[in-house]
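Reviewer 2 asked us to include a model.

Predict the structure of this chain.
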Amino acid sequence: MATAYERYNLHTTPEKFYIEACDDGVDAVLAIDRDSNEMTLTDKVHVPPSAVTRPICGIMGTIRLVAGMNLIVITRKRNVGSLLGHAVWKAVEFDVIPYKKTVLHLSESQLQENNTFLSMMNSVLSTDGFYFCTDYDLTHTLQRLANTSPDFQEMSLLERADQRFVWNGYLLRELAAQPELHRFALPVVHGFIVIKPCRINGKIFEWILISRRSCFRAGVRYYVRGIDSEGHAANFVETEQIVLYEESKASFVQTRGSMPFYWSQRPYLKYNPKPVISKTRSHTDGFQRHFLSQLLIYGKQTIINLVNHKGSEKPLEQTFAKMVSEMNNDKLNYIAFDFHKECSRMRWHRLQILVDKISETQEEYSYFMVNSEGKTVAHQRGVFRSNCMDCLDRTNVIQSLLARCSLQSQLQRMGVLNAGQQIEEQAEFEKIYKNAWADNANACAVQYAGTGALKTDFTRTGTRTKWGLMMDGWNSAIRYYKNNFSDGFRQDSLDLFLGNFAVDEMDGPTPLCAQKDWKLLLLPIILLLAISMCIMCILGAEDLSLHTIAHVISWGVASAVAGLAILYFGQHFVDAPKLVHKKKMD
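Predicted model (structure tokens):
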């Protein structure tokens, strides 16, 4: 495999960027012309004395904004551990460097737009959870890597990567177009990785959890639901649990993803917007594309749908069940489990009902394992595809329970656990396991919903607590604010970063210039004024005269009318995306 370079120096001159590979025995320099944007590979060159030199950790890619092209580099990384002898890094800090030496060629409006786009790029780059490895393919599971051809093994990291999980794929397009530059390209995954050395019965093993978020149909909670016409599901995540002990290795893979048909849940100031299932689009084609792809990649599928069986979530569950039935594929198995009903009044022990129900299926699906002699002794023949509404909180709880069942079998088979021993009895490892799965929940939740996950007290401790309920309430309040008043910007940022929207060189205004109706903007002012006057009338009154009561009532009525009007026109007050004009049911 052609590995990527590990160490670099960036030399900046007014005319060019020189990115020098500093690995031992390497003489390679990527030169980028700041005027023509041309990229060329050269041997070591004499860098002018006037060049500004600094070390960097890698190239994230390039992107065109209003002012022209920009180079995005990783400026700081942190080691998260070693996977099969390969160092895994988290990208911690980035820099977006413009090719142009000045912005004097921009008008005031263009400069403002360029700064907004820069803010969008930095918004995505500042989201925690970007990982890379220079000599190992993080985008594939152990089982996929074990079943590859010699030709595949000879490919560069960029060529062989699973494009679903390469978050800087769009940014690397210029490097990808020139094979001689591939060793400068670092495929970066987004999600969560933890690598922990553990000890049970005096035996040391590595326990690893990797969540890979798909960059297809990526977005934020309320603006990206369901599927697109290609069958890509919103918030699709592949989670792999890996165990390494001496020379043996094992992995267990699960997936999560939005219910794969056309539905939406656009915010309009209501705490829990009503989900809407499209009545104008045919769900069948996208639904079948999704699952035919899943069956091809993972084998059999058991769908675990954790949404409520009453209220606004009920039609979604019914639609999902109906479509699985109509697809009539014997490799698809559908299980509906009303998580909130079953676990109401703190009855979290009832999750065992679901675990027991699918235990035989889990044995059938098995897991991937290679023994200490290098022989493959088990293949995973299917996956559990879990979802709730967001594929975050309820989903993560269930996935952690299923992963534990698989781990129990793997550790016994490897000889780490003795006969009759249970993982739950290993207090030191239990703490590591529960905290890692809770951290995984938080990472995925922040990336999709904007806050940490709910129900992580159960994942961390095995019990539901009052403090956990209070923290869930706090996180829910923050989610409400972000989902209504800042997620439009976050969605635009992701669409720009992933190439769903491209800034061209036209002089015309971008969609950022769209203005809200000024008449509607008066309503919040009227509401604040009315509430303020109502309070002033109450506090300033010496006695409760009819005159005072009349003023309080009139300003109170004005407050109520303004408040109701804001709720009625709620969709106009939320922060909606501007760059990609999706159809309502996309």
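The first strand starts at residue 8 and ends at 12. The mean pLDDT is 90. We have added this to the supplementary material.
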